[in-house]
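Um, can you check?
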Amino acid sequence: MRRIPVALLATFTLALGLSACGSDDDGGGSGGTAAKPTNCTNKIVKEDAPRVLVWAWYPNMAKVVDNFNNQHTDVQVCWTNAGQGQPEYEKFQTAISAKKGAPDVIMLEADQLVGFEIQDALVDLAPFGANDVKKNFSEGAWKDVSQGEAVYAIPVDGGPMALIYRTDVFKKYGITSPPKTWDEYAQQAAKVKAAGGPVFGDFGSNVPAVTTALMIQKGAVPFVYDLADKQNITVKLDDQATKDVLTYWGELVKKGLVGKEDQFTTDYIAGMVGGKYATYVSAAWAPGYLTGSGVGAGKDKGKFAVAPLPQWDPASPVSVNWGGSAFAVTSQAADKALAAKVAMGIYADEASLEDGWKTQTIFPLNQGVLKSDEFVNAKVDFFGGQTANKDVYIPAENAYKGAVYSPFTVYYYAQLQAQIVKINAGKTTGEQAAVDLQKQITEYARSQGFTVR
């Protein structure tokens, strides 16, 4: 799930030339062989083994850690939940600035990696054998955690995007099949509205990652950045693809065909339950989140299905991703080789992966799971027994080619969010929003010491 609060902005200092992270001997390491962390949430199975401190927030992390510790005598994971997303990132940033207090291994969302990589806060795992597990992941999943030959994290879960829809709403208003293109989406939205039906979807400002994914699907390349060339970045947010996507959704809002509510709120969930929205553009992790929020548990049970994400150009289909997390080793790790072993091994065993996907905690990126008969042919209760993995999500994941993220994802998301608010309020157009966004992000990048190409 992706929610990037603006409050995180103040925690990042990206000025080039600063190396905010400590070395092995600066006293910053929390675990490894230098010292044994004692604030473990979990039980340590082998007391005399070295410990690696891990920060992670997966809901089933307790089981995952127990699985790892029970299978290893040479290392033990000492796990703590330092917060989900923003709270954890803030604590990590504080530790980077202080040059102490970071964990050995940290769970990070893929689009946040570069912001920490540029501060030398993460370790290149390639020298520690990361490429030995590369075969376990798709091209796109691996690209999201890599910079050239360097590998900065080991993927666990992802968010291939698709279109969730209400079968009862579609049936009531004569929609015989889900839209295959965004043009069809708009046409069906108009048909439902004309018949007095609910809004077809939602253009919430608080999910800028979704809008960015749809921009990329249209052909936009918002950023070109290579960590090997830290100073230079290409920013392209005023291109025609970005303008088209923002205009498209702005027009749907203007015509009353989609809502403009923030997602993940109580009101939004109530709307999902009550059939206020005919569709939900989301990721493979959505069924688990929705079920946990009470969707599909009452009168709306069995009313949902999923289809491939509509395409801008059906002749050239593009798969995009929303969310996904990985395990990285921090530069403060006392024993980086041992920490790398944990990063590569945790949430990688069969029992943990099975628990993760069966409880819908994760959409696994491990190809061993994605190709297993049990996962491929699983009938998803939330979708009324539909084989959603086989029909939609696995093809979408395998077709995903990865994305290039900027070193200031949080700032970018905040500015895009502000532009969407203005679009939804009728205070700007999609085209103007793209022009303004280009100016804002370019100015910010230059203020941080980047040369914008």
User: Anything to note?
Assistant: The chain has two domains: 6-158+321-399, 159-319+406-452. The domain at 159-319+406-452 is CATH 3.40.190.10 (D-Maltodextrin-Binding Protein; domain 2).
